[in-house]
Design a protein that fits this description.
Blueprint lengths: L7 E4 L9 H16 L3 E6 L9 H14 L8 E2 L4 H13 L3 E4 L3 H7 L26 E4 L1 H7 L4 E5 L2 E5 L8 E3 L7 H11 L4 E5 L6 H11 L5 E5 L19 H6 L4 H7 L4
Parallel strand pairs: 1-2, 2-3, 9-10
Antiparallel strand pairs: 4-5, 5-8, 6-7
Bound molecules: zinc ion (ZN).
Length: about 270
């Protein structure tokens, strides 16, 4: 198989804490699929939020993943080193007149709207749209209605091989450039997947609904659409996401207690 024909997978953790079983599940599932399908496997460090990212957590990611038996191509892409790429994408959207500054606080938005977005957060009602506010110190939001009109109303993608059609407007005017970091998760993940040639996105079900935003951005920016496979999240005994759980134990603690990578796979019901 030629290098060009090979699928490209990626695992993209944020160095904001130690990896736990939920991360291990996602990473192993992703890596195993890449192996089975003869694909390449990339690791990406999602550290745009420099207020939360820490070098010791990044070092721990490499150590924990290598211990689990994963290997990845070098160099690893670090988002904090590619802010220019995200700025260029935002400039393209700006040239289409799709961005506007918003100075609303979370409390403003919570008070202004009873509606909810697809994550269950208060839906932004568009208060600042059309106001031509100054950009300094403001978030930049996507004019969703205008963006959706440009791509013909809906977006679609292949989820486990089945076509999904979805309406991005249910998210409202999402923030694409946070005032503190100048970009956003949605922009960074979309641009990185395109620049790295990612063909297969394997990630948790918690990002399933955000996929319609990523597909919209890909359409607006003329980027290819990867295939998506969102997997179930690992839950604790009370059915809560591990990340939110008091019981989530870092992989390194399990390792210190004598667990082996095979034990981790068994705990996650992975072959
Ligand atoms: Zn606003």
């Amino acid at each position: 198989m030629s290098e060009d024909a090979r699928k490209i997978f990626r695992f993209a953790p944020s160095p904001n804490g130690y990896l736990h079983l939920g991360h291990a599940y996602s990473a192993l599932l992703d890596f195993d699929l890449a192996q089975r399908e003869g694909g390449r496997f990339l690791l990406r460090i999602e550290d745009i939020d420099q207020g939360r990212a820490r070098p010791e957590f990044e070092a721990a990611i490499y150590e924990d993943l290598a211990w689990l038996g994963l290997s990845w191509e070098e160099p690893v892409r670090r988002q904090s080193e590619h802010l220019d790429d995200y700025a260029a994408a935002l400039a393209e959207l700006d040239a289409l007149d799709l961005l506007y500054p918003c100075v609303c606080s979370r409390a403003d938005i919570a008070g202004a709207s009873g509606a909810r977005d697809l994550d269950g957060a208060p839906l932004y009602p568009g208060t600042c749209r059309g106001k031509r506010l100054a950009r300094a110190g403001a978030n930049l939001r996507l004019d969703m209605a205008k963006a959706v009109a440009l791509v013909g109303g809906e977006v679609s993608w292949f989820e486990h091989g089945k076509e999904i059609v979805a309406a991005p407007q249910e998210w409202g005017d999402v923030v694409l450039a946070r005032k503190d970091i100048g970009t956003s998760y949605h922009i960074a993940v979309t641009i990185d997947d395109a620049l790295q040639g990612v063909t297969d996105v394997v990630r948790g079900r918690d990002l399933y609904e955000a996929t319609r935003i990523h597909r919209l951005l890909q359409e607006l920016l003329g980027l290819p659409a990867p295939a998506y496979r969102h997997h179930a999240l690992v839950l604790d005994e009370d059915g809560r996401k591990l990340a939110k759980s008091r019981l989530s134990k870092p992989l390194r603690d399990l390792r210190a207690e004598g667990a082996t990578p095979a034990d981790v796979r068994a705990m996650l019901d992975l072959p």
